[in-house]
Specification:
Layout: H1 19-30, E1 33-34, H2 46-58, H3 71-85, E2 95-98, H4 100-112, E3 118-123, H5 127-135, E4 139-144, E5 146-148, E6 151-153, H6 156-162, E7 167-173, H7 185-198, E8 201-205, E9 230-235, H8 237-240, E10 248-251, H9 254-264, H10 273-282, H11 287-310, E11 314-316, E12 323-327, H12 336-347, E13 349-350, E14 352-353, H13 361-364, E15 367-371, H14 376-386, H15 388-391
Parallel strand pairs: 1-13, 3-4, 3-7, 7-8, 8-9
Antiparallel strand pairs: 2-10, 5-6, 9-10, 11-12, 12-15, 14-15
Helix pairs in contact: 1-12, 2-10, 3-10, 4-5, 4-9, 11-14
């Protein structure tokens, strides 16, 4: 304590060590299979890793890269948006490279919010959203995705009711972590209409854009009236299994990019120079790469989902991402925190309690998230261990 005040800024007092750090440490301590934190256990394409090596050796990006990102990557991002989504962006004025999607979210909220502004976020939400809204001085307004007919669904009436005169923006995540929900064309059209009607900005986290197994991923920016009010975020980590590189980007109108860059330049300024050149090559990989990635993860989703069902869980098979949410109540449990903390000793597997992603903790209490972005042999062993829960 100094001057009678706690050391930590009061906006962050609710945010301690993340659940991912806690559960990953538990996995190490118990020697368990870690299906908690969402990172692959294999590296991305060798050709892309070699591209990073070449960049380092050639001196490309070893010193500070340009603030907006290296031109090669900004051009590749613009080409990617046109090729996959039919969206045209100027690489010089409408693309900004960030230190992963996490910084992109933080910079966007710091740039676009004033203290007291309300931010609607779909609950459950990735934990950094809450912290970033708090750091920006905003007020978080959760709209809960609720289980219905085997999936988590958005109630559009609840979303509309959440908008007040103080609402500044909607923070959207689709494909959605942790539930695996992929918002439909009809749902996105309704969100776009609401944003236009109430003059709202929207920040969309689309890092799982290529990991859709049912339905389709449609960027919100593609809907009428949204081009000038959406900040679209994505990254290389999930698509190319290179989460440690922390290369992300935003695409938006020049005015929005300028605003976000004004905040971003005082966060990391720049990062990952050589990796930016390699990711530029990754984004230009043939369509077969993305198809094979999706097929591989779909098979792993099915393997883990079926194993979890056989173990006695109620399983919400995801339409996208690489996470499966389960209901633990059929196994006689109701507290996801207690369940996950005991699971390594019970069967040698680590998962994450979904309640940590909720403001309304009781809504998320019986749900637990497992990651399937692991080798098939690891998932097979995890399924074998988890099946022991039914007998226990």
């Amino acid at each position: 304590m100094t001057q009678g005040r706690p050391l930590l800024n009061r906006r962050l007092t609710d945010f301690g060590t993340t659940i991912f750090a806690e559960m990953s440490a538990l996995a190490v301590r118990t020697g368990s299979i870690n299906l908690g934190q969402g990172f692959p256990d294999t590296d991305g394409p060798e050709a892309i890793r070699e591209a990073a090596v070449r960049a380092v050796r050639a001196g490309h990006g070893n010193q500070y890269p340009p603030g907006p990102g290296v031109p090669e990557l900004r051009a590749a991002v613009a080409e990617h948006q046109q090729r996959h989504h039919g969206l045209a962006y100027d690489p010089d004025t409408e693309v900004l490279v960030t230190t992963g999607a996490t910084e992109a979210v933080a910079a966007s909220l710091l740039a676009l919010l004033e203290p007291g502004d309300e931010v609607i976020a779909l609950e459950p939400y990735y934990d950094s959203y809450a912290a970033c809204i708090a750091m920006a001085g905003g007020t978080r307004v959760p709209v809960t995705l609720r289980p219905h007919e085997g999936a988590f669904r958005l109630d559009l009436d609840e979303l509309r009711a959440a908008v007040t005169p103080r609402t500044r923006l909607i923070l959207l995540n689709t494909p959605h972590n942790p539930t695996g929900t992929v918002l439909s064309r009809e749902e996105l059209a309704a969100i776009a209409a609401l944003a236009c009607e109430r003059d709202l900005l929207v920040v969309t986290d689309e890092v799982y854009e290529h990991l859709v197994f049912e339905g389709e991923h449609i960027p919100l920016a593609s809907f009428p009236g949204m081009r000038e009010r959406v900040v679209t975020i994505s990254s290389a980590g999930k698509t190319f299994s290179l989460t440690g590189w922390k290369i992300g980007w935003i695409t938006a109108s020049p005015e929005l990019v300028t605003a976000v860059r004004s905040a971003k330049q005082f966060l990391t300024y720049v990062s990952g120079g050589p990796f930016q050149y390699a990711v530029a090559e990754a984004l230009r990989l043939p369509g077969s790469y993305f198809d094979e990635l999706r097929a591989d993860l779909r098979a792993k989703r099915d393997l883990l989902s079926e194993g979890l069902a056989e173990a006695g869980f109620d399983v919400y098979r995801p339409a996208g991402t690489y996470f499966v949410t389960v209901d633990i109540r059929p196994l006689g449990a109701e507290d996801g925190f207690a369940f996950c903390r005991a699971l390594p000793e019970r069967c040698g597997v680590v998962a994450v309690p979904n309640a940590v992603f909720y403001d309304h903790r009781a809504q998320g209490a019986p749900f637990v998230r497992f990651a399937f972005c692991k080798r098939t042999d690891v998932l097979t062993e995890a399924v074998t261990r988890l099946k022991g829960l039914r007998g226990a």
